[in-house]
Amino acid sequence: MDSARFLRDCWQQKPLLIPAEAEFTNPLEPEELAGLALEPGVEARLVRRHGSDWQQDPGPLREDSFDGDEPWTLLVQRVDHYVPAVAALRRWVSFLPGWRLDDVMVSYATDGGGVGPHYDSYDVFLVQGQGQRRWQLGQRCDSSSPLRDNPDLRILEDFEESASYLLNPGDILYVPPGLAHWGTSVGTGMTYSIGFRAPRLSDMLSRWVDELLPGVDSELLYADPKPLAGGRPGELTDTAIASAREQLKALLIRDSTNADWFGELVTETGVEAADNEGVPLPARVYLDPAARLAWRASGAGVTVYANGLAIPFAAGSELLAALCRGDSIEAADSDANREILNTLWEMGCLLQASND
């Protein structure tokens, strides 16, 4: 697809069907996905369809979880963390900010299976891997949209179809946040969902204030507006409230160049990384799909944000861009690069790559 046109016309605005331009090789077999769902620590769930209703069975799953005649869907989160061939799908969307990418969820469904009409708060690329799935798109939704009495699945009470697409292997459907959608498997099939999450504004505000508070002089006090107008006894005037807001606003924008709070926030991960301290750096490495990595260039060098930490370096933007793109890197490239790679390796953000 034309990435520039997509970003201008579709990203977070409207859906887009991207037909397959070549034969698609499914990177994962259904049996492998089912095996992952049985492993402890892997987030998986099974959704069964009962007529016009759906029921979710949370993991850990068992082998007999897949028994039954009713349509069902198996969903497994973060499959890209476990299967390199699935992680390779992330390269298709490498033109988007890597720190926004959440994971690749994989679903397998029997004929008629699905999770019902719903909406997501994140952008998603739905890649058909095997078989066919029909996607119906609906209305715009938000937190006020009525839901059925099923908090686990968040199924919409109403669904107003606006478009319908039948996806074949290799087809991709982009769905922006807040747009209702409903996928139903036609026969058995697999779908790969590449999801992009955004940080909550409430979390951003909290982190920004936490960053600023230590630098605020405790002797700074609220200053009355000038000239101070008289009023009725005890009245809290609109002018006083407006003055308080302006003084707080001045504090918030006083240090607008510091971005570490944001870089640390968007690269935080709940996945425990390996501790490679004292383990020699391999000759060739690549970014672990479970790691979160971002970077910011500045006049003094580059700041790396890795798994919630901010680390300054003298240089390395080209190396970091290559890692975020998914390239494998020769560790002995340069002293500056080796310093960054050593740090990321010890933090458990890198994996050993084959020398083939």
What features would you describe in this structure?
This protein has 356 residues and is α+β, with helices and mostly antiparallel strands. The chain has three domains: 3-196, Sandwich (Jelly Rolls), CATH 2.60.120.650; 201-252, no CATH class; 260-352, 50S ribosomal protein L16 arginine hydroxylase, Chain A, Domain 2 (Malonyl-Coenzyme A Acyl Carrier Protein, domain 2), CATH 3.40.366. It contains eight helices and 15 strands. The protein has helices at residues 3-9, 30-38, 84-87, 201-212, 238-252, 260-266, 317-325, 335-346; strands at residues 16-18, 44-50, 53-58, 72-76, 101-109, 123-140, 163-167, 172-175, 179-196, 284-287, 293-298, 301-306, 309-313, 329-330, 350-352. The strands form three sheets. Strands 1, 2, 3, 4, 5, 6, 7, 8 and 9 form a nine-stranded antiparallel β-sheet that branches. A three-stranded antiparallel β-sheet has the order 14-10-15. A three-stranded antiparallel β-sheet has the order 11-12-13, with helices on both faces. A hairpin with a 2-residue loop joins strand 12 (301-306) and strand 13 (309-313). It is globular and about 75 Å long. The two termini are 30 Å apart. The relative contact order is 0.12.
